[in-house]
Specification:
Blueprint lengths: L2 H4 L1 E5 L8 H10 L6 E5 L5 E5 L7 E5 L6 H17 L4 E6 L17 H12 L3 E5 L14 E4 L2 H11 L6 E5 L5 H11 L2 E6 L45 E3 L6 E9 L3 H12 L4 E9 L5 H6 L5 E5 L5 H6 L3 E4 L2 H13 L15
Parallel strand pairs: 1-4, 4-5, 5-6, 6-7, 8-9, 8-11, 11-12, 12-13, 13-14
Antiparallel strand pairs: 2-3, 9-10
Helix pairs in contact: 2-10, 3-4
Amino acid sequence: MNISKSGYRVFSANSTTACTELAKKITERLGVDLGKSVVYQESNRETRVDVKESVRGQDIFIIQTIPRDVNTAIMELLVMAYALKTNCAKNIIGVIPYFPYSKQCKMRKRGSIVCKLLASMLAKAGLTHIITMDLHQKEIQGFFSFPVDNLRASPFLLQYIQEEIPDYRNAIIVAKSPSAAKRAQSYAERLRLGLAVMHGEAQCSESDMADGRHSPPPMSSGRTTSGHPGLELPLMMAKEKPPITVVGDVGGRIAIIVDDIIDDVEDFVAAAEILKERGAYKIYIMATHGLLSAEAPRLIEDSAIDEVVVTNTVPHEVQKLQCPKIKTVDVSMILAEAIRRIHNGESMAYLFRNITVDD
């Protein structure tokens, strides 16, 4: 395909070689060349982007895979989008397979919804559309003022289970927490397998002491106030975490834990130990985004986990060298097809076949 006549160009907003691999695979499938641009860091760590060709009146797709240095990657994307906007690009579509800060999409005590802030920044920089994959919460799409296509990696992971796991018919799909049960149920129903749910694992707790929740403070004797005294409200009963239990029989079965993100792996390692104790003879973990931060490769290598399968939405070649148990599934095909369909004005429904509202 002659890119000068295609009406669109594909750029990579990454300054690191490892992060451009996905962009190269996508452009190879599309039959176009990667757009000519230079993204680099100044000596004072400022991000600079130089676009080396005309983009006037064209659809521009910016592929941005997120490495460990998340904040630098975000600035690269913002600066490139703004540079393309000021150079009169017709539409600027961000291809962000793993959307950063997606776990910070709910209000925490005295916190903020950072994911909404990032959505506003992307819109201000000039993006008009986003292609992403398996958002941590589907409701994140509501933070954006422009269209978001939330693709699914599950067809590729399901295919891996069917083709690469021997005797997968003897497997059981496991949700490592009740919050992950809906995703696990979707996998189980498509594979015609059983479902097990783990309950009672440690959750992050926050102390309510000295945080203002007990205000107004009790009045000392002799002190008067002209205001209305504080009302005595019923107290919320404190949560008591039950011991870890597995709802479902995993004895003599292959346990496949499914989730969207695997980053800190302590919970997965603990879940694998419990499943081994309950009689599972093989443990697989399937996740879309393999962040695998810090000591994750070493912990996986030393654990009862037999294999961790993730997609190439996030670069993890270094982690694979440290841990042979980590396997990769390529999802560049669906990203390339999404780019082609958006540019040609074709329906995206084909990419969401058999996906229900609850998935």
